[in-house]
Design a protein that fits this description.
- By secondary structure, this protein is of the alpha/beta class.
- The protein has a single domain, classed as Alpha-Beta Barrel (TIM Barrel), CATH 3.20.20.140.
- Helix content is 37%, strand content 19%.
- The strands form 4 sheets. The protein has a 7-stranded parallel sheet with strand order 2-3-6-7-10-11-12. Strands 1-13 form a two-stranded antiparallel sheet. It has a two-stranded antiparallel sheet with strand order 4-5.
- α4 links the parallel β6 and β7.
- The longest helix has 19 residues.
- The protein is globular, with a radius of gyration of 18 Å.
């Protein structure tokens, strides 16, 4: 991925789900047209890639031409080929179009992911921890099932342990929505979830800086009623101080009208935090 300065990231959305993701609507073409309307200079598609065999009846699928098909090397190839066609079509209009995947990570599937991701034509590999104990804590219809089983400390401990392995794997360019557990955890655990990262996230950020794994600022949780991005401001300050690269802003769009939403707001926050931390962090897309 080419290096891009922070000011340019203001015009880029690096977390976009076209209708290849089962929970999304809008074609690649429709998103690109909307990106041009918004004045974006770059868009990166990040279709879901969820392959936990314990969730084989729920997750490992992709939608192609209106049909739900199993995730496979062929289905990913068809997806990336369409992105490449869009890259050719819209490049002359000033829009850079990139192919990525948002990959659900768990330690027990790491070697499988390593083999599979190596065979894909991707510009961007976005790692995420969506599931704990094979339950999607990022899904409104599943999260409480997991939260009922765990104290707040048990939940964040397991989450950051999985995240540590994701960073150590060196499979990913960046980590998505780093404290995403708060999306539904806030309603279950209360406001304590917003500071539950303390003592857990610091070694993760140090490892990210060491391994050159970046962080995205995800604006999508604002659509869920949260008042801060993922990660929240306290974690962003820690990340800046520990020299973790902020490599992308992402709307986590699942509909065309989500595209680019609150990207400028996130950019301005990072600029403010950079000044308050004496600009110690690098802010580039790799």
């Amino acid at each position: 991925m080419p290096s891009t300065q922070l000011s340019q990231l203001r015009k880029a959305d690096y977390h976009v789900h076209p209708d290849y993701s089962l929970d999304a609507t809008g074609s690649i073409d429709e998103y690109c047209q909307r990106a041009l309307q918004l004045g974006l200079k770059e868009i990166c598609f990040t279709t879901h890639y969820d392959t936990d065999p314990f969730r084989k009846d729920i997750d490992p699928f992709m939608r192609i031409e209106g049909k739900v098909v199993p995730l496979s090397k062929d289905s990913v190839r068809r997806y990336t080929e369409e992105v490449r066609r869009a890259e050719e079509k819209y490049g002359s209009q000033g829009l850079s179009v990139k192919a990525g995947l948002e990959v659900d990570y768990s330690p027990h599937i790491e070697e499988r992911l390593r083999e599979e991701l190596a065979g894909f034509d991707l510009d961007y590999r976005l790692g995420a921890v969506h599931c704990l104990d094979h339950i999607a804590i990022t899904a409104s219809n599943e999260a409480e099932k997991y939260f009922k089983r765990k104290s707040l400390e048990e939940m964040v401990s397991q989450y950051y342990e999985n995240l540590k392995h994701a960073v150590k794997s060196e499979l990913f360019d960046a980590i998505a929505h780093l404290d995403v557990y708060k999306k539904y955890g806030l309603g279950f655990y209360g406001k304590e979830v917003l500071v539950a990262h303390r003592g857990f996230v610091e070694p993760i950020l140090e490892l990210m800086a060491k391994k050159d794994v970046g962080i995205e600022v995800n604006t999508g949780v604002l659509r869920k009623g949260l008042k801060e991005f993922c990660p929240g401001q306290k974690i962003l300050v820690l990340a800046l101080k520990k020299r973790v690269k902020i490599v992308a802003f992402g709307s986590d769009a699942h509909k065309v009208d989500h595209l680019g939403r609150d990207i400028t707001k996130a950019y301005l926050l990072v600029e403010k935090l950079k000044r308050s931390t004496n600009g110690v962090s690098k802010t580039t897309v790799r």
